[in-house]
Amino acid sequence: MKKIYGIAWLFCLLLWVSSCQAFVFWDKTELQNYRLSNVFLQLSQKSNTEALYIYDELVKKLEKWSLAINSEKTKNTLEEIIWKLQLRQESLANNLKKVSRHKSLILKFWAGAQSNVFLESKRNEIENIESVFIFRTGSTDLPWYQIEAIAAKLKSINPDILIFIDQEWWLINRYVEFDATTSFQNYLVTDSYVSDIYNNFSEATKTSLGSVFPSGYSYFPSLTKIWEVYNAISKSDKQSYLDLVAYLRLKTLSDRWINTYWLVMDLDRGNPVIRNYRRSFSSDLESYKRLWDAFIKASKKTWVSLYLKHFPGHGAGQVDSHIWILDYSNYQTYVGENLELFKYMLDNKWYTQMWLMVWHMYVPNTLKSDFSDIISSADYILTDDLAMQWYVQATWWAKSWVFFTTDVVFDSEKAILVDSLLNPKIK
Predict the structure, then answer these.
(1) C-beta separation of 217 from 178 below 8 A
(2) How far is the CA of 269 from the CAs of 123, 273, 282, 283, 332, in angstroms?
(3) CA distances from 307 to 149, 167, 272 (A)
(4) Exposure letters 278-316 (e unless 16+ CB within 10 A, then b)
(5) In sequence order, what DSSP letters do the residues of 217-236 get, joined into one string?
(6) Is the pTM here over 0.90, yes or no?
(7) Which of 213, 239, 243, 263 is in Cβ range 3.0-4.6 Å of 184 for a Cys bridge?
(8) Are 312 and 268 in contact (CB under 8 A)?
(9) Helix, strand or coil for residue 338?
(10) Geometric angle at alpha carbon 69, from 66 and 73, rounded to 5°
(11) What is the pLDDT of residues 385-408, one digit of tens each?
């Protein structure tokens, strides 16, 4: 709702004609430029993603209004305003994508501990970093209100900071998302977007949602569980169901001031750490693309950036990558399909920054060109942890017909090298 009010206010500012201002300027063009500069000033005080969203909405509103106007003079004025807005929009989008290696920080917290004093002690570091990774210390996940307080404090110290937390549905968590006061039912009552989608479902789909968000649950269900319900409900409800799940996934994060999300995008072809832990949405390429469409829509509504793993695909073979080297030299079809999935994602995104987490693996040389093209279109690249023993083992194993994915991105100016062994070393 705040976004709508903000857009309406800027829209009125842009088009409002004030006699008390008009006499100060020589002509209407000068007055128009003055008001546009005020719009640019107001938007410069917002986050890049929010500003781009508002520019996009302004342009769409002006274009729609222009179609209903008969006056050629007014149409020409509107077209000039739209052109100037689009130039600023394009410039902002290009600046958003200018990425270089940057400083980051890993912070660890005990469940239930008071965190503000600790964060204040790190104020100087936090003010001079671009991103922070939040982990828990100990085996107990943090309550959602603690993570909300931590993230809010981080944002108050550094408003532009990117906040990462590995909250992978039901399996890998850092905080407890749901409790007696915060649940699916709570969102159903308080969030009109959720209730509007839900109310249009068939009764059978509403019943199925009970298994997705059962009473007393603490975390999101697995991606595989999401798929099982998606596969069972009526075709007419499928995309709306994905829209609802993706929105709730990102909204629960944005409500805690977390502005990035790590989404697993591995086609499930039997890898034990993917299939056995129910981390993949599907083995079907087209269904995964529909999931991506839902997450793009949710990203536009929540301003949460998406971080995609495990590029170029981890869901085939029988190797647990924490134990031994991922050698996909004989899995060209699988890796090729997963590359197609990642390409679809990067071709169908919006202004938010798009991250790829690159998996340490051997891939056939025949796919190197496609791999490199997709890497070049990502805004950021993160390596998987360089401290993993199997990565260390893989560095000596060279073959002429394969390439090592990490080697391809290691020298990229977009790459952030994650090495938790060195205290941790994140460049």
Answers:
(1) yes
(2) 45, 11, 9, 6, 13
(3) 23, 12, 22
(4) bbbbbbeeebbebbbbbbbbbbbbbbbbbbbbbbbbbbb
(5) --SPPPHHHHHHHHHHS-HH
(6) no
(7) 213
(8) no
(9) helix
(10) 90
(11) 887 877 877 776 767 899 999 888
Q: Enumerate the β-bridge partners of residue 305.
A: 260
- Residue linked to tokens 């990102």: 250
Rounded Cα gap, residues 333 and 323, in angstroms: 24
What are 296's two structure tokens? Answer: 């793009």
Which residues are CB-neighbours of 332 under 8 A, at least 6 positions away?
Answer: 364, 366, 367
pLDDT tens string 333-357: 999 999 999 999 988 876 667 889 9
Q: What is the DSSP letter of 269?
A: B
Residue 336 sits at the vertex; the CA angle it makes with 334 and 341, to the nearest 5 degrees, is 95
Q: Distance (Å, rounded) from C-alpha 145 to C-alpha 131?
A: 21
- Contact present, 278 and 225 (Cβ < 8 Å): yes
Which residue type, as a one-letter code, is found at position 328?
Y
Q: Quick check: 381 and 415 in contact, CB under 8 A? A: yes
End-to-end CA distance of the chain: 38
Contacts of 416 (CB under 8 A, 6+ apart): 101, 102, 104, 131, 380, 381, 382, 383, 426, 427
Q: Which tokens go with 249?
A: 């996934």
Least confident of 10-14, 57-61, 326-330: 10-14
Secondary structure (3-state) at 258: coil
Cβ neighbours for 292, distance < 8 A, ≥ 6 positions apart: 265, 341, 344, 345, 348
List of residues 6+ apart from 298 with CB closer than 8 A: 243, 246, 247, 249, 250, 251, 304
Contact 321, 279 (CB under 8 A): no
DSSP 60-111: HHHHHHHHT---HHHHHHHHHHHHHHHHHHHHHHHHHT------EEEEEEET
Question: Residue for token digits 């640019």?
Answer: 40
pLDDT-wise least confident of 245-249, 309-313, 418-422:
418-422
DSSP state of 318: S
Q: What angle do CA 73, 77, 79 make, to 5 degrees?
A: 115
> Which backbone phi and psi does 261 adopt, to 5 degrees?
-140, 135
Largest CA distance in the chain: 76
* Continuous segment of H or E residues that includes residue 306: strand 305-311
